[in-house]
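Below is how a single chain appears once it has passed through the pipeline. First comes the sequence as given, then the structure the pipeline wrote out for it. We keep one example in the README because the format questions we get most often are answered faster by looking than by reading.
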Amino acid sequence: MAYKLLPSQLSAKALRAYSRLSLDETKCYETVKRIILQSYNLTADAYLQSFRGMKRSGSSTYKMFLTSLREMMQRYMDARKIATLSDLVKANIQEQFLMSLKDNVRQFVLTKSPRTAAECAEYADLYFTISKIGKETDRQDFGQRHGQAEGPPRFVRPNFGGMRPSGNGGAHVPEVPAHPNN
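Resulting structure:
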């Protein structure tokens, strides 16, 4: 019966999400809660970022601020389904591991949606292997295309328009052909 009272208490955005649910779905609190939170993009990562960025401000007392910190941490733990100290430790290790990665590696790992720190490490190693293979292939392709052995390309200084280096600090002086009468 309480599900009939809920719509009148929702914001416009939450009400739009709620209105997309079937009648059976509106009777399940967990389903309604999940759908509304998804509509606000309130993920575990968003809660964690919010938690880490919180600062006491305005007329808020330190006790009120501490309560806000606890609530935000609880939202994070609920979203990550953290129920034990062991789960919390695992989540912290995974988060720290991800933050230690270079941006491009972290982005690659996150696209794979890892569930554990071990999966994060596997995907990071995969990225390293793929990028290493790519570099070796580029180096081999370059050597084969130009008929050179493996290794960095050789640099040959071009001679543009008969210019030759002079002894005056690197300035170039045009070569003057010898006069035929000399």
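The helical segments are 12-19, 23-26, 29-39, 44-53, 62-80, 85-100, 103-111, 117-145.

See the next section for the split statistics.
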